[in-house]
Amino acid sequence: MPAKTKPAPKPAPAAEAEAPRAWQRMLSGRRLDLLDPSPLDVEIEDIAHGLARVARWNGQTSGDHIFSVAQHTLLVEEIARRRCGALDRRLGLALLLHDAPEYVIGDMISPFKAVMGGAYKSVEHRLLAAIHLRFGLPPTLPDETVKIVKDADRGAAFLEATRLAGFAVAEARKFFGTPPDLPARIEQDFLHPWPAGVAERRFLERFSKIEGG
């Protein structure tokens, strides 16, 4: 009777692959986890530096420099201030930081955000909540504050679209609504793309002024 063959030993389970890196090293030395961000790893200098180097409209704007997210946020805050009058600290910071997550995830145009769907929004919301907590804002803003921010954001988008990104006025009205009424000298300043260093400095100066009241 032939001897029974022993079954071949099962191969040892392969070592689990290391999880992909989900953190970003900042110039401040902080290491920000994009999936589980801590307010303790958020620094305003990192935000200013990053936003001053992230292009709005995927860089499809006129001028010698990109139109940065930092410059955009300052334009949004300027529009809201002219509409609402003096802003308290909370509203001023909410306006200035409304696009702050883009200092690590970049600025995606709205059509691509729609394609990405919930995954992008989830990361963005977690980052914004951590940023808010770092600077004494609630993780989720009141509806009234959100409306002020969104209205000013759309007004800024209208101006950027028509002055810098090649949109016709009728087309911009369709997507962004009624344009804000700004003095010519303000438009000239805020809609002339600044070098990155200037955008970073002006962002930090405005932040300091809002924080100081």
Automatic annotation (TrEMBL):
It comes from the Bacteria. SUPFAM superfamilies: HD-domain/PDEase-like. It comes from Rhodoplanes azumiensis. Residues 1-20 are annotated as: Disordered. This is YfbR-like 5'-deoxynucleotidase.
